[in-house]
Amino acid sequence: MALIPAGPFVMGNCMDASEGYSSELPVHTVMVSAFYMDKYEVTSQLWFEVRNWALANGYTFGAGSGKGVTHPIQTVSWYDCVKWCNARSEKEGLTPCYYTNAAQTLVYRGGSANLSNEWVKWTANGYRLPSEAEWEKAARGGAVGMRLPWSDANTITNSRANYYGNTGYAYDLGPNGYNPAFTNEPMPYTSPVGYFAPNGYGLYDLAGNVWEWCWDWYGASWYSNGSATQSDTCGPSSGSDRVVRGGNWDGTTYNCRVAIRYFSYPVITYSYFGFRCVRR
């Protein structure tokens, strides 16, 4: 894992307002406490190691899928990712973060519970999904005012990320189409984690490969919520969709922007949905 230092960062679409969605505005400053984040998206190998332990220790969740042991796990629901975080914590002797009620007395190990912010032990040393603010702070890698997860250019090419090229966007240098390095097998065209260069915090694949589930319920107008968004925000108290971030192998450069906010029902499993963990 990599240490993401405490401090403020500017969250939202800091480029031309017409470039993104209205949900990426207003741009605002958020204070985030220090945390650790997985350098890589959770791999198929790590997923199944923890899952096998979990199934023998009272957990229930879906299988997931991966192209190879070093490829990201995908086709995993938000619910399963949250339970997997708890299992990883317990397997390593850490305190789980997710519980079945606000009393935080029963560890979340099964079913599809719509956990609320109060059901999370935020100070625990176990693994959890990043908040949307934590994800964006980490993805920016310490850079300010950039479109993508690197600090040396506001453009993208398939030598920097696994995404679907579309030179109709001025900041996409192409070529067009799927990244040819990963199209010699049946779909999904994921790439091994760590294949491309890291960002300023030493994190890999923040643009493309698989969308990454975050903790937060999605709220289109959440950024306008004043003081609630300014310090260690963990999103709205309820909703119907959970946030995913970072783009994917089947999406264009538009979805690789660090400010992009996408979302899905937490029960959904797609071949371009994966995740990575954080912890305190």
CATH superfamily: paralog of FGE (formylglycine-generating enzyme)
Give the strand order, joined by hyphens, for the main sheet. 7-6-5-8
Examine the coordinates and then state which fold CATH places here, giving the name of the CATH topology: paralog of FGE (formylglycine-generating enzyme)
Rg for CA atoms = 18 Å
Sheet/helix structural class:
alpha+beta
Secondary-structure element pattern, one letter each: EEEEHHHEEEEE
How many E-type strands?
A: 9
Q: Which segments are poorly predicted (pLDDT under 50) over 5 or more consecutive residues?
A: none
The largest sheet, given as strand count, sense and whether it forms a barrel, is: 4 strands, mixed
Number of domains in the coordinates? 1
- Specify the CATH class: Alpha Beta
Helix tally? 3
